[in-house]
Specification:
Layout lengths: L13 H27 L7 H21 L10 H11 L7 H12 L4 H22 L9 H86 L5 H26 L20 H10 L4 E8 L9 H21 L5 E8 L3 E8 L14 H11 L3 E6 L5 E7 L4
Parallel strand pairs: 1-2
Antiparallel strand pairs: 2-3, 3-5, 4-5
Length: 406
């Protein structure tokens, strides 16, 4: 047996419950008053015995109606049983009419045809029993059949109206529950979208911070390591290394401020700083050479316009590939020569290859965890592929292939 704990049948507030009890009492009292008028105030005066019988019948009618009120609090937990009992009592008690209307209406909110048939069947069965019991004691009256048919018809019409009201109330509750669920689903989707946007933005910022800072910090660490382990440097060489460390540290701080600026509330609407492209590749290589790395840059494989002719978004991704590859080479294979080769044209794609030798572990920098992983994600977002690994000749190769539309 279903209970009233679901959204379709919520617990009613006290005011709504009192209203339903009031309707049951008012309708029952009105129906019983009409019955009193019909039985005691007839055109033909009643004998003393008839009057006493009528009063006794009305008293029993009222007692049944009052007792039926005890069924209402249980109609939400046992809707079918209460509905069928209230419908059956309509055949013997007019004072029960209000209780029957409320119980049948509550039963109708479940919108189950089998339950409707059970309640109507209970009423008709009770009417048949009443008619059978009246047959031996009724007075000869040609209108008995018509009166019975009229009473049954009125009872069925009252039940039909109560069921229709219950069906309407149930449909409205379902519509309200559906609308509420849609609102909750929309709120959940909005919250999920906001969380995804925040996570994506944090990932983007972390990737940008890694791309911007890893290059500078690796240069600082390289020169600091030289100062720490080499005792054969002249005063001028030591001062030059210190100046290089200072310059790269200052650049790292400046670039860090630019990246973190997007996190400040007052800068939320500010325009982001332009990202480096392949046009800045010579400056990147020059920085690496100043740090002591041997870098060969080959752009002969590009179209006639060279790096300047590469679309901005594609050029930016290509720059980050080279930057990350040189940073990793400096961290893991310091002193080894590296070759940067760019090739491709519109309609054929852009290929970026960085090849360097391998050697003993270099700078003792903690792994960031977002280097090649973040680079692979960046390349994938650009629609390209990234591959890297050791080659049979002992070199390490990082190669990215990016689509270049005409």
């Amino acid at each position: 047996m279903p209970t009233a704990s679901d959204p379709m049948h919520p617990e009613l507030p006290r005011r709504a419950q009192l209203l339903r009890y009031g309707i049951a009492v008012a309708v029952g009292a009105l129906a019983w008053s009409v019955n009193v008028t019909g039985r005691l105030h007839t055109a033909i005066p009643l004998t003393h015995a008839q009057h006493a019988a009528a009063v006794a019948a009305l008293t029993v009618d009222l007692a049944i109606g009052v007792a039926a009120l005890l069924l209402l609090p249980r109609r939400r937990r046992h809707p079918l049983a209460v509905g069928c009992m209230a419908a059956a009592l309509m055949a013997v008690s007019t004072a029960n009419l209000g209780v029957a209307v409320v119980a049948i209406c509550s039963l109708g909110t479940w919108r189950r045809r089998g339950w409707v048939a059970a309640a109507v069947g209970s009423y008709l069965a009770a009417e048949v029993v009443v008619v059978v019991l009246k047959l031996p004691i009724r007075t000869p009256d040609r209108d008995f059949g018509w009166q019975t048919a009229f009473a049954v018809s009125v009872g069925l019409l009252i039940q039909a109206a109560a069921f229709a009201s219950g069906y309407y109330l149930g449909a409205r509750r379902e519509l309200t529950a559906t609308a509420r669920e849609r609102v909750l689903a929309a709120e959940r989707e909005q919250a999920a979208a906001a969380d995804f946007a925040r996570t994506s933005e944090r990932t983007r910022i972390a990737r940008e911070m890694h791309d911007v800072l890893a290059h500078r910090i690796s240069l600082v660490a390289l020169h600091a390591g030289a100062l720490a382990y080499r005792d054969d440097l002249t005063r001028e060489q030591t001062a030059e290394s210190a100046r290089t460390i200072q310059a790269n540290a200052q650049l790292a701080l400046a670039e860090l401020r630019q990246v973190l600026g997007v996190l400040r509330a007052e800068d939320a609407g500010a325009v982001e700083q332009p990202q480096p492209t392949l046009a800045e590749l010579p400056a990147l290589v020059a920085d690496a050479r100043e740090a002591g790395s041997v870098i060969t840059l080959d752009t002969s494989g590009l179209a006639a316009d060279g790096a300047e002719g590469v679309p901005t978004t594609l050029s930016r991704t290509g720059f980050r590939v080279v930057q990350e590859a040189l940073t990793n080479a400096r961290k893991h294979a310091p002193g080894e020569a590296a070759t940067v080769r760019l090739s491709g044209a519109a309609g054929f794609g852009l290929e970026v290859e960085v090849r360097n030798g391998t050697g003993p572990a270099g700078i003792d920098l903690p792994p960031s965890g977002v280097g090649l992983v973040g680079l692979a994600e960046r390349v994938a977002l650009a629609g390209g592929t990234l591959e890297h690994g050791l080659r049979p000749d002992g070199s390490f190769v990082l190669r990215a292939r990016l689509p270049w539309q005409k």
